[in-house]
Amino acid sequence: MTCTPLPPSTSAAAGCRASLAIVLLSRGAGYASGESELTVLAQHLHATLVARGLPLLSVQPAFVDRFQPALPQALDLCAAAQTIVILPVMVPDEPSLRRWLHKLIMRWRADRIDRTDSGPHSQRLIFAAPLVQTPQLADVLAATVQGALAQPPAHDVPAVVGEDDWEHDPKGWSIVPEHQHHVLWCTGPRCTAKGAVQLWPHLARTVRENPGLKKKVMLLQTSCQYPCNHGPLMIVYPGGQWYGPMDSSNIEPVLTQHVLHEQVSEDLCIQGSHTLARQSS
Predict the structure, then answer these.
(1) Crossing angle of the two packed helices 196-208 and 251-259, in degrees rounded to 10
(2) What Cα–Cα distance (Å) separates residue 231 from each residue in 96, 192, 225?
(3) Which pTM value belongs to this model?
């Protein structure tokens, strides 16, 4: 995902003034359209701010967890701006998460100074107020209610009719999949910031392309598992072994050794027995 570009008609004027970038920050969604919806919102916000004459370079979507880009990646994409506003669109707001995100932003700034050897500079990093504290939010919600009341009855939730077995449709949702292992992959905020979401496709491909793993393993993303300093984290059940930090070089050998050869990768096992009970085939 890339920053929404500044239209050519306004780029010259913006370059002569203090440049501005917005990071539109959301929690990751558990559905496929979550990424596209935030992107559309970023595009609408970009158009609105440009129309108001702000010297805008970009509006960059970002996710706290489950999706990418994570906040450090988004800040990298907008690093050329003299002012970056992190705009949270998460409801409800979590004070503990907000405090950690502040530390993440401070760490990003310190790392960037080290990488570029530029020393401290005057770039502003602003974390906007939580969405639920925005005074105009109630007006927006009230307008949405009025719009819902004005829609025709044909758009209402339908009533149950006849003998339709709607509660058990589709049938596949009542069938327990065949597998012997749950592999829990942490996509909480801290593991996401350490690259867990970028690694998820590699993990999925490892299982999908190995017939032995594909038959025995069910992959599940989780929220924060808490020992964040060891992340990205992978927990394998029924053994209950916790592995970390995981990366693209160790996912396949650790998972293959654990599931197919019933051996624990001791150098990466941070919790749980180092001896696996034999599983029946």
Answers:
(1) 50
(2) 19, 9, 9
(3) 0.73
